[in-house]
Structures are given as structure tokens and as C-alpha cells.
Amino acid sequence: LFDAVTCLAKENARLLVLGRKHMLMNSSNWKREIMKEMQNKADFFFAENISEDDAFLLYATLRSGKHCRFVTRDFLRDHKACLSDSLTRHLFRKWQRGHQIVFFPSAAGRSINFLPAFRYDCVIQTTGDTWHIPYKDVFEEKYSYQVPRKWLCIHQK
């Protein structure tokens, strides 16, 4: 968490960290001085320890506007499963791909990197006589925020 907050704070982004109240207790996992340092770089909201904090995350992201992004390791599958129909689930996945920033450790494990949220939708797109089609070389399981990185460009003559 400290590395993620530090990395994002360098970009002068306004940050809100959603956590649980147990993070305020000095422990081996949550050192008081490190928490204070993070609180100087970001705003914090601490939910009850037994709370379902995903609801806070979704509300804060939606309430903060269309340019807001969120970072979580959660794939939000439970929330998608609760949606009433396939169109709503599709819209949620589309919104998630456009707003969720994914973090992963670097190869050396010394820092973290972020995959930005997508600025485009992962569907066939066309402009006049040109088609752009997302594809994968091999079948692999993917998470809802992952889209193919390769696009086939077809131009009709």
C-alpha cells in the first residue's frame, strides 16, 4: 500500500485510500509512522473492520466523476453477479475496464507498476471502410479488466 500511494502521489493525483479501522492500530502490518506518512500524501477513509468496503469503493469512484480511477486487487465478481441482467453486467464490465487501474510488482520485485484504465472499449470498431478487431493469439483465461492488447486493422479497398 505504501509503495502504491507513493507512486501515485508522485503523479500529483488526488488520492483517497479506503481502508479499515484496524489499520490505525500500530501493529507489525500497519506501522503508525508509515500510516502517518501515507496520510500526508492521500486522504483516508476507514470503514468498520467487518464492513464490505467494495460498496465504499464503488460509491467514491462514481461520486468523484467520470475521470476518477480506482485501484484494487478485487475483481468485483460478486457485484457483477448481483446485477439483474446481461446488459447491466456488460455495462458494469465496460465501466470497470475504463476506471480500474491494475497494479503489479516489477520483475525485480522492488517497485510496482500500473496498467492504466482503458480509453477504448474492447469491441469491434469501424470508421468508414476501416475495421479494428481485438484478438488474442492463444486462448487464455482473463479477468474482466483485461482486454486484448492486439488489434487487427482491416481496410476495405
UniProtKB/TrEMBL annotation:
Highest taxon of source: Eukaryota
GO molecular function terms attached to this record: metal ion binding; ribonuclease P activity
Pfam family, one: PRORP
Signal peptide: none
Domain PRORP: residue ranges: 3-153
An individual GO BP term: tRNA 5'-leader removal
Keyword Mitochondrion appears in the UniProt entry: yes
The family this protein is said to belong to: Belongs to the PPR family. P subfamily.
UniProt-recorded name of the protein: MRPP3 ribonuclease
Protein species of origin: Hypocryptadius cinnamomeus
Gene that encodes it: Mrpp3_1
